[in-house]
Amino acid sequence: MVRTQAKRTLENAMRRWGFYRVAGCDEVGRGCLAGPVVVAAVILDPNRRIPGLCDSKMITAAQRERLFDVITRRALAWAVASAPPAEIDTLNVHRASLEAMRRAVFALAPLPDLVLVDAFRIPGLLIAQRAVLHGDRRCSAIAAASIVAKVTRDREMLAHHADDPRYGYDRHKGYATADHLAAVARYGYSVLHRRSFRPPSLFDTID
Questions:
Q1: In CATH, what number is assigned to the domain containing residue 48?
Q2: Nearest alpha carbon to residue 87 among 77, 75, 96
Q3: Which of 40, 61, 72, 54 is nearest to 154 (CA)?
Q4: What is the DSSP letter of 204?
Q5: How many domains does the chain divide into?
Q6: Residue 2 is assigned to a structural domain of this protein
Q7: Is the pTM of this model over 0.85?
C-alpha cells in the first residue's frame, strides 16, 4: 500500500465557510473477533501543523506512537470513546460503532462546529457533519483521529494480553488471525470476545 499523506484542504475549505472548529472522527476494531471498537474525535489547531499525518494502517506502531503524542499535545481538543463487546453483540457492530462515534464527538471540549467522519454519517448528532469516503487517507483531521483511536485500542489490547496471554493479543490485537482462531478453538471465548462474531471454522468447536 502506498503511503499517502493526508491534507488539510477539506478542513481549510470548511473554515472558509465559517466552520472554525472542524473535527475528524474515525474508528478502529470493527473487524475484530475480540475487544472493543474504539473511536477518536480530534479538532486540529489550524495554526499548528502536524507533518506526517496519514491513515494509521499505513505507518508503523512506532510512528503511530510518536504522532499520537504530537496530536494530543497540539490539538485544540481530542476525545476517545469505545463500544465494548457486550454493546457490539447487543446492537451489532455498525450501530455500536456509530454510537461510540456520537459519544466521542460529544466528549470534545469545546464542541466542534463541523464533524468530518470517515465514510459514515452519525445519526442523532445535531452538529453539522459530512461523510468523507476514504477520509483517513484524504483528510488530516480524520487521519489524526485514526491514529489516536488505533494507539488507544492497541494499548488496551496489550493490557488485556498482560492479564491473559493465552490468546496472543499482543500480536494480532483481537483480529481473527490463524493463531487467534486456534487459541479460541483451544480455550473457548473469553469475556473479551464478541459472541456475535462466529467464524465458520469455530461453529463446531465452541458452544
A1: 3.30.420.10
A2: 96
A3: 61
A4: T
A5: 1
A6: no
A7: yes
